[in-house]
Amino acid sequence: MSGDLMKIVFSDKKNGRTAQLEVAKDREPMLIGKKIGEMIEGAVVGLDGFKLQITGLSDSMGAPSRKEIEGSRKAYALLSHGPGIIGAKKGMRVRKLVRGNVVSADTSQINTVITEYGTKSAEELFPKKAAAKEQTAAEAK
User: Fold this and answer.
1) Is residue 35 within 8 Å of residue 54, measured between CB atoms?
2) Which one, out of 35, 69, 83, 136, has a CA that is 20 to 30 A from the CA of 57?
């Protein structure tokens, strides 16, 4: 990875909200090797008691991951729908650069969905935008 921290984006299907947290460098090895569809502990990013299911990945260059491509390699795949394809017409196929289904050191974002809830409330998990801006401004000082 190019000096960036890995991010976990987690969404809550109950209220339709999404947030993201950065993974500390010392916690990244706990995620490497996990596949799309596997469960991870929320404690990796401070969500104690939560279970998250991996739904997708992106690398530092923005290439999305495809579940059907094994490993963490990059490949040019002939695609008609799904991650990496936007607005395809019926019968249209496009060869796109996509990444495999395994978390690697090149992964910059892991998309997840909450499957088991812990002790934190929705307000703690998904702060309002104004409150989040104030918090980041306070941390910058």
Assistant:
1) yes
2) 136
- What are the tens digits of pLDDT across the range 34-50? 999 999 998 888 888 88
Task: Please indicate, yes or no, if residue 91 is contained in any of the structural domains.
Answer: no
Task: Dump pLDDT digits (tens) for 71-107.
Answer: 888 989 888 888 777 777 888 888 888 899 999 988 9
Give how far the C-alpha of residue 4 lies from the chain's centroid of Cα atoms, to the nearest Å.
14
In-domain check, residue 92: no
Contacts of 91-98 with C-beta under 8 Å, sequence gap 24+, read 97/63, 98/63, 98/64, 98/65, 98/66, 98/69, 98/74
Q: What is d(CA 62, CA 107) in angstroms, rounded to the nearest whole number?
A: 9
Q: How many domains does the chain have?
A: 1
Domain carrying residue 119: 7-67+101-140
Cβ atoms of 99 and 1 closer than 8 Å: no
Q: Is the pTM of this model over 0.90?
A: no
- Position 84 in a domain: no
Question: Would residue 29 count as lying in a domain?
Answer: yes
Give the CA distances from residue 45 to residues 7, 39, 123, in Å, rounded to whole numbers and listed in that order. 9, 14, 17
